[in-house]
């Protein structure tokens, strides 16, 4: 029945593909990023400049600077950033994954799953998305097999809630494994958890799930999946926040809800941001590397999953064809900021987007 529903949804909304929508290009000059935005940090505390920015979220502010958080998918945590006009000023780094599994993490760590090469080293968080819901930031790992190594790394199976301190120089961190419980229990997408993400000769069938978007609306968390995409539908998995972080090592005590979004063939969710009215702004893009699928923006209504295309994002006019949109945050009415993976400091650009 769910399969038939997805076919109906995909065919009924086929004309809403961003391919037929307006092409969005940056307005104004690229934003300035002050020195200090970091990617991977080694054991000596030496870091590399951020080149794999994968998510951004900002606390609202009526005027003046905004407190934001950025993740780089090669890092073990996330970093505070102040957005002041058209300048991003990097601040404190908050370690989330650490060098060993956090003893205080609630829930039970998942098993290896079906990643072709099995258990990998405990390393980076593979942070893919950030969300903000007052007064906290939320950061998630990918919850999938590593894309190139096809290994399971426990460090990527964490969801964190960060409570900033009064000075804005650090945060207390809570971690949980229960987002993985929600993904495994979710209708339609549960069977795709911890399976390979990219084709491999002699490997297991390509059918993996990974998380790349995150939003919190009210008391509900929404995980946006880059994959799988079935019959032109990508998926949100929603779950109440409180059971995710409840004390103890027991499993998730809540039933997740799977919401299909008709974004088009091979178009998964690359980021989410919550709008003031409770709708979601969705950044879409290819489920796998090498696919000719445009990056697009959609407006999604909750809980129905009805989507409205807002436009496709034109490739950056620069020397690095690898740059791809990976994070989005609302700046104000009709204005969004997009950050790019495989670009130094995320190459932040502002776009004008008419949101009905």
What is the secondary structure topology, with strand pairs?
Blueprint lengths: L1 H11 L10 E2 L7 E2 L4 E4 L5 E3 L3 E6 L7 E7 L4 E8 L2 E9 L33 E5 L2 E5 L18 E6 L6 E6 L1 H8 L24 E8 L2 E11 L2 E8 H4 L12 E6 L4 E8 L5 E7 L9 E5 L6 E7 L10 E9 L2 E7 L7 E4 L4
Parallel strand pairs: 1-20, 2-8
Antiparallel strand pairs: 3-4, 5-6, 6-7, 7-8, 9-10, 10-11, 11-12, 13-14, 14-15, 15-16, 17-18, 18-19, 19-20, 21-22, 22-23
Structure description:
- The chain is mostly beta strands.
- 6% of the residues lie in helices and 40% in strands.
- It has a 5-stranded mixed sheet, with no helix packed on it. A 5-stranded mixed sheet has the order 2-8-7-6-5, with no helix packed on it. A 4-stranded antiparallel sheet has the order 9-10-11-12, with no helix packed on it.
- The radius of gyration is 19 Å and the shape is globular.
Low-confidence stretches: 1-5, 7-16
The succession of helices and strands, N to C, reads: HEEEEEEEEEEEEHEEEHEEEEEEEE
Span between N and C termini?
32 Å
Shape: globular
Helix content: under 10%
Largest sheet: 5 strands, mixed
* Fraction of residues in β-strands: 35-45%
| Secondary structure tally: strands | 23
- Cα-atom Rg, whole angstroms? 19 Å
Estimate the mean pLDDT confidence: 89
Find the structural class using helix and strand composition: mainly beta
Could you list some keywords that capture this structure?
globular; 40% strand; disordered N terminus; mainly beta; single chain; 356 residues; 3 helices; five-stranded mixed β-sheet
């Amino acid at each position: 029945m769910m399969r038939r529903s997805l076919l109906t949804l995909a065919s009924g909304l086929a004309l809403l593909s961003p391919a037929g929508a307006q092409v969005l290009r940056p307005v104004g000059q690229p934003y300035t990023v002050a020195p200090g935005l970091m990617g991977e940090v080694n054991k000596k505390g030496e870091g590399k400049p951020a080149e794999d920015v994968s998510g951004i979220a900002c606390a609202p502010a009526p005027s003046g600077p905004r407190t934001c958080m950025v993740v780089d998918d090669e890092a073990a945590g996330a970093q505070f950033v102040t957005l002041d006009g058209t300048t991003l000023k990097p601040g404190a780094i908050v370690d989330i994954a650490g060098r060993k599994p956090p003893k205080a993490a609630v829930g039970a760590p998942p098993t290896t799953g079906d990643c072709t090469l099995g258990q990998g080293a405990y390393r980076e968080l593979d942070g893919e998305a950030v969300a903000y819901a007052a007064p906290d930031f939320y950061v998630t790992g990918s919850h999938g097999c590593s894309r190139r190594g096809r290994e399971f790394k426990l460090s990527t199976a964490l969801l964190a809630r960060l409570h900033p301190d009064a000075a804005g120089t650090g945060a207390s961190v809570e971690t949980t494994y229960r987002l993985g419980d929600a993904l495994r229990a979710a209708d339609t997408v549960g069977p795709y958890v911890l399976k390979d993400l990219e084709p491999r000769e002699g490997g297991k069938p390509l059918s993996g799930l990974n998380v790349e978007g995150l939003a919190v609306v009210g008391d509900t968390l929404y995980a946006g999946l880059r994959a799988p995409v079935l019959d032109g539908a990508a998926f949100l998995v929603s779950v109440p926040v409180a059971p995710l972080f409840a004390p103890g090592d027991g499993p998730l005590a809540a039933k997740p809800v799977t919401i299909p979004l008709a974004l088009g063939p091979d178009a998964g969710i690359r980021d989410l941001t919550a709008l003031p009215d409770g709708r979601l702004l969705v950044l879409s893009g290819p489920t796998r590397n090498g696919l000719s699928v445009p990056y697009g923006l959609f407006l999604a209504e909750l809980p129905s999953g009805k989507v409205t295309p807002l436009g496709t994002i034109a490739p950056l006019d620069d020397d690095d064809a690898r740059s791809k949109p990976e994070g989005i945050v609302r700046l104000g009415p009709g204005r969004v900021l997009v950050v790019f993976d495989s670009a130094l400091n995320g190459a932040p650009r502002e776009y004008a987007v008419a949101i009905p």
